[in-house]
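Before relying on records like the one below, remember that each one covers exactly one chain. Contacts with other chains, cofactors or solvent are not represented anywhere in the record.
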Amino acid sequence: MRDTSRTLYVLRCLQDNSDEQHPLSINQILRYLEENGITANRRTIPTDIQTLLDYGVDIVEVKSKQNLYFIGGRHFELPELKLLIDAAQASKFLTTKRSKVLINKLLALASPYQAVGLRKSLYFDKKVKPKNETAYITTDLLFTAINQNKRVRFMYYDYGPDKKKMYKHGRRIYEFSPWALVWNNDHYYALGHSESHCKAVTFRVDRIAAPKLMDINSVPTPKGFNLAAYTKSVFQMYDGPIMDVTLKCANDWMKTILDRFGESVSTRTSDSEHFYADVTISASKTFYGWIFASDGAIKIVAPDEAVKAYRDMVNRA
């Protein structure tokens, strides 16, 4: 076996079997090499480890009667892997099967001892998981279209009161130029130009049916189009006319305002129990419903147009 191959097996031994709590001795590394049919001795292992160090591998040496070695820095820290695994596990976008595949790939980046601990907390609520991978496949197609600057065609559906799919506008075929994929509230949305709407719109990816990649160039993003601002206006309160409003909020609702509008939101004191917040929103039924759900803790004070629209909605209710 060539020396280069032996060095790579030393690296694999350390990656697969060591961490800070489980360093390996030279004898343990030699045993691993022997099990894989590789001849080595106590003098060659330090040389191989030095070669790996010279190539930038983070190997930590613990000085003792018999020196011990382990992989120091990995691609991800343990808390980072835990965060990613929890996201894959809880995602309503990924099927249980796809979540498990992704989690296994993430676990391969940890030491085997860390992986055991990470697996202990795994739980899949199949009631919130999709039954097929259609949305996953659609996302891949949209991602390809974005990278190749191509349009896509598809149908779009919602659900009726009988829980059956209802295709929009009699199975209309939408021609769409995707500009970006946006993750919001555990769902993917495709943002781009719709030929049917003649403007920028968003489609929820898991509601797209029968997508096809077209050999037609996309409509380019308009000059000066602020993707971040558009996304914020749409997903904070869904689609509706953009409007600047002033809210009067109970003091204990500051956290809610910051969670929804960000820490840069403009606020000022109203009285000892309230503060004002100046926010830009999409004035939709969803926004007014959010105000109603605060049970009076948040009130619209300006402009009059928004105040009237909210009152009209409450009266209709």
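The two ends are 79 Å apart (CA to CA).
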